[in-house]
Amino acid sequence: MAKHNELGKKGEELAVQFLQKNNYKILDRNWRFKKAEVDIIAQKDAVLAIVEVKTRSSDYFGNPQDFVNQKKIKLLVEAVNEYVISKDLNIEVRFDIISILKNKNNFDIEHLEDAFLHF
Q1: In whole angstroms, what is the distance from residue 91 CA to residue 103 CA?
Q2: Domain 3-118 belongs to what topology?
Q3: 8 A C-beta contact, residue 105 and residue 69
Q4: Contact assessment for residue 29 and residue 19, using Cβ atoms and an 8 Å cutoff
Q5: What is the DSSP string of 49-86?
Q6: 92-103 and 47-56 as β-strands: parallel, antiparallel, unpaired?
Q7: With DSSP H G I counted as helix, E B as strand and the rest as coil, what are the percentages for the chain, rounded to 5?
Q8: Tens of pLDDT along 1-37?
Q9: Alpha-carbon separation of residue 92 from 26, 42, 61, 89, 103 (angstroms)
């Protein structure tokens, strides 16, 4: 597996652990619809959190969350609409980004709630 793929998988694992420590229930991981893949679908209280995980080994080219573009957002919204309909859910939906930056042997994790409101 390529190093960037390994880093991405590690980032997703760290994101799941972070969410669980913060009382989120993980409902699905890597859920796919058409061309979209939703990294993590989690629930906390009455909110369905759609979580895009971005992991980078440095911030030389920008912060990890800067790599979520309009095309990705559009695909995620379409996929989540399908998810909510297919599961017959009546719940508030929020789009989050978990930004993970590798810092030597540590990882800095930042959870941006309602992240798409800032685009």
Answers
A1: 36
A2: Trna Endonuclease; Chain: A, domain 1 (3.40.1350)
A3: no
A4: no
A5: EEEEEEEES-STT--GGGG--HHHHHHHHHHHHHHHHH
A6: parallel
A7: 35, 40, 25
A8: 555 578 778 899 999 999 999 999 999 999 999 999 9
A9: 16, 12, 34, 9, 34
